[in-house]
């Protein structure tokens, strides 16, 4: 599982899917497994059938993604060591370099809008982006351009 975090915007990227925060509430989460100091939540994200909570140790600064099921039972914990900047993503540059007629030949206007909205780091409609992602291979087959937004 590849987990990256945009600290400034509190967005978690899990395997190329952006999870926007549902809450930025700060709560005591537990004790750091590295230094035994207090760990507090940074953001809460809906993930699969439960929640993903980002949490930071007050002492060593270690940031973790803690995954819970729908009943708030602990499932797993991953150290977040990779970060990204949502606003400076190359996705928008890739989309802007593609002829709009080519995009329109494969994607609906709603799908294109969701692709551009996500590339700009704004909230997008997940169902349209999901539909667009199903068509990425077709777009690459037709025009030889790979999209991965």
Would you give an account of this structure?
The protein contains 5 helices and 9 strands; from the N terminus they run βββββββββααααα. It has 149 residues and is α+β, with helices and mostly antiparallel strands. Strand 6 and strand 7 (63-68) form a beta hairpin. The mean pLDDT is 90.
What characterizes the major β-sheet? Answer: 5 strands, antiparallel
Instruction: Extract low-pLDDT stretches.
Output: none
Structural class: alpha+beta
Q: Strand content of the residues, in percent?
A: 25-35%
What is the overall pLDDT average?
A: 90
State the helix count.
5
Net shape? elongated
Distance between the terminal alpha carbons, to the nearest Å? 17 Å
Number of strands: 9
Helix content: 25-40%
Order of helices and strands: EEEEEEEEEHHHHH
What brief labels describe this structure?
five-stranded antiparallel sheet; 149 residues; 32% strand; alpha+beta; elongated
Quick take:
With 149 residues, this protein is α+β, with helices and mostly antiparallel strands. Helices cover 28% and strands 32% of the residues.
Give the helices and strands, then pairings.
Layout: E1 3-6, E2 11-14, E3 17-19, E4 28-31, E5 38-47, E6 50-57, E7 63-68, E8 74-79, E9 82-83, H1 91-96, H2 100-106, H3 109-119, H4 126-134, H5 136-143
Parallel strand pairs: 1-9
Antiparallel strand pairs: 1-2, 2-3, 4-5, 5-6, 6-7, 7-8
Helix pairs in contact: 3-4
């Amino acid at each position: 599982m590849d987990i990256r975090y945009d600290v400034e915007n509190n967005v978690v990227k899990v395997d190329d899917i952006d999870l926007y925060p549902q809450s930025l509430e700060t709560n005591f989460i537990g004790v750091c497994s590295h230094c035994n100091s207090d760990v507090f939540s940074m953001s809460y994200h809906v993930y699969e059938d439960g929640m993903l909570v980002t949490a930071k140790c007050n002492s060593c600064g270690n940031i973790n993604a803690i995954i819970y099921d729908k009943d708030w039972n602990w499932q797993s914990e991953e150290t977040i060591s990779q970060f990204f900047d949502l606003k400076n993503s190359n996705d928008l540059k890739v989309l802007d370099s593609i002829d709009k007629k080519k995009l329109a030949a494969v994607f609906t206007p709603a799908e294109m809008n969701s692709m551009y909205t996500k590339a700009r780091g704004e909230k997008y409609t997940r169902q349209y982006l999901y539909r667009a992602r199903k068509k990425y291979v077709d777009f690459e087959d037709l025009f030889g351009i790979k999209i991965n937004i």
